[in-house]
Amino acid sequence: MRKLIVLSFFLVAGNIAAQSKGVIIGKIIDLEVNNEPVLFANIQLKSTPITAHTNFNGNFEIKNLSPGAYTLLVSIAG
């Protein structure tokens, strides 16, 4: 029984710790070209080395962020 209580404690503590991080999910589209997705755009959190890239659908995801306000810098080649 004691092992079950200890195991339960670690599972609950792990879930609480995992919830202290956030994620930014978004989609980059080109309004001048009929809302087409922007492929392989670079997304960077301002003043940090954290970056992401859009996929073929213009979607991106940045995981494991501390709670707070962020400024995104978006750039494309060309």
What's this entry about, in short?
With 78 residues, the chain is of the alpha+beta class. It has one helix spanning 2-18, and strands spanning 22-27, 29-30, 36-37, 42-45, 51-53, 59-65, 72-75.
Task: Reconstruct the topology from this structure.
Layout lengths: L1 H17 L3 E6 L1 E2 L5 E2 L4 E4 L5 E3 L5 E7 L6 E4 L3
Antiparallel strand pairs: 1-6, 2-3, 4-5, 4-7
Description:
- With 78 residues, this protein is an alpha+beta fold.
- Helix content is 22%, strand content 36%.
- The protein has 1 helix and 7 strands, in the order αβββββββ.
- It has a 3-stranded antiparallel beta sheet, with no helix packed on it.
- Strand 4 (42-45) and strand 5 (51-53) form a beta hairpin.
- The model is unreliable at 9-16 (pLDDT under 50).
Largest sheet: 3 strands, antiparallel
| Proportion in helices | 10-25%
Q: Gyration radius, to the nearest Å?
A: 19 Å
Strand content: 35-45%
* Tally of DSSP helical segments: 1
Low-confidence stretches: 9-16
Q: Report the strand count.
A: 7
**Looking across the biggest beta sheet, what order are the strands in?**
5-4-7
* Overall SS class: alpha+beta
Terminal Cα span: 64 Å
Estimate the global geometry from the Cα principal axes: elongated
Keywords:
78 residues, alpha+beta, three-stranded antiparallel beta sheet, two-stranded antiparallel ribbon
